[in-house]
Amino acid sequence: MTPLVSIIIPALNEEDTIGSCLEKVKAGCLKKNISYEIIVADSSTDATPEIAREHGARVIKPKKRGYGNAYLSAFSHAHGEIIVIGDADDTYDFSIIPELIQPIIRGKADLVIGSRLKGEILPNSMPWLHQYIGNPLLTRLLNFTFHSRFSDTHSGMRAISKEALGRLQLHTGGMEFASEMLIEAARKGLVVEEIPIIYYPRKSPSKLHSFADGWRHIRFILLLRPLRFLIVPGLVFIITGLLLMGVVSFSRTVELQGLHSFILGDIFMLGGLQFLFSGLVMKSYSVTHRLDDCGPWFSRILKYHSLEKILVIGFIFMAAGFLSGLYILVNYVTTTGPLMQITNAVLSLTSVIIGLQLIFTALHVSMMLLRCEREGCGFLG
User: Fold this and answer.
1) Which InterPro entries does the UniProt entry name for this protein (predicted)?
2) Are the CB atoms for 377 and 286 separated by under 8 Å?
3) Distance CA 221, CA 236 (A)
C-alpha cells in the first residue's frame, strides 16, 4: 500500500497559478492511486487561499512571511510518511509526484531532488544570470564546502521521508532554507537521489531578488564554515603581514627606504585580524542560534573567563598604543631637529586598533551568549 503523501506548497499572491498546480497534484496522485493531502502555506493578500480551498487544499497561515518560514510552519501540519515540496508558480509539474517519490518508497533514498540542470529548462523559464552564473556557482560552492555532489541545490521540487525530515535541524526563514535542507542532509548522511525534471516559464512576475537572495545563501554557508573562508585566510594575511614588516625592519631603515612596504605589511596584518575576528563572531552566531555544533576548541573560547581574558588583552594593547603615542608626542615637543618616529607611530596606531578589535569582538560574543544563558547551553562556564 502506498503511504500517505503530504504535498506542501508555499504561496504568496499566486492566484493565477495555484489552481493549475493543485490540479496537477490531483492528476499525478490519482494516476497511481496515491493517498495524499495538500497543505498550502499561504501569506497572500489576493484570492490564492480561496482558490486553494476550492481545489481541496488545507490552507495554513504562517506567523512570519518567508520561503523557509512557510515550510517550517507547514511541516508540523503534515500527516504523510512522505513529504513533497514545490512552488506555487506553476514552474514545476506536480503530476510527476509518483516518479519523485518512487526512490523513497523503494527504500533507495531518504531525499529526492528534482534536478532542472539534469532535465530541461524551457526558454524564458529562468534568467540567464541564474541559469549560467548564480545557480551553478552557488551549487559548486555548497558542494565544495560540504563535500556533496548535488547538481541543482536551488531546485524547489523535492520529496523527503518524514523520518528523514525529523533528523534535520532546520531553522532559516528565507530563501536560504533551500540550501540549509541540503547542507543538513549532507551532514546527517541522508541518501539523496536526483531525477531530471522540466522547468517551465512563470505566468506571473518572479518574486526572487537575485543578489539579495544569492547573498542569503552565501551568508548562510559562511556562517557554517567561517574557519575555511575567514579564519584560515585571516591567519594567512596576518603571517604575511608580520613577515613583510619583519623583513623590512631588519633589512633597512624603515623611515628612509622601507616605509611603504612596512605600511603594506601592517595593512595585511590588520586586514587578517579583521577576517579572523569576523570569523569568530560568525561562528559564535551559528553556535548560539543552534545552526552549528560548538566543538571542543570553540567551547573553550566561548567560556566567560576566556572572553574576560580577551578583554584584558585588548585593554593592554590599547594602553601600550597610547603610551607609545605619548612617548612620540613628548619627543616631538622636546626635540628641535627632525623627528624620525614614523615606524613607532605606525606601531602605536596598530596597537590601539588591535586592542579595539579584541575588546569589541569579546563584547559582541558576550552579548550573543546571553541567549545561551537564557536557554541553558551546555558549553557555558
Assistant:
1) Agl6_TM_C, Glyco_trans_2-like, Glycosyltransferase_2
2) no
3) 21
* Domain boundary residue, one of 223, 257, 283: 223
Integer Cα distance of 223 and 276 in angstroms: 13
Angle at CA 207, nearest 5°, toward 205 and 208?
120
The pTM assigned to this predicted structure is: 0.84
d(CA 219, CA 24): 35
C-alpha cell at 1: 500500500
Same domain, 202 and 245: no
Work out whether strand 82-85 and strand 58-60 pair parallel, antiparallel, or are unpaired: unpaired
User: How far is Cα 142 from Cα 229, in angstroms, rounded to an integer?
Assistant: 12
Number of domains in the chain: 2
**Predicted confidence (pLDDT) per residue in 200-239, tens digit:** 998 887 878 888 889 999 999 999 999 889 999 999 999 9
Assigned C-alpha cell, 68: 523557509
Report DSSP state, residue 327.
H
State whether 35 and 159 are in the same domain: yes
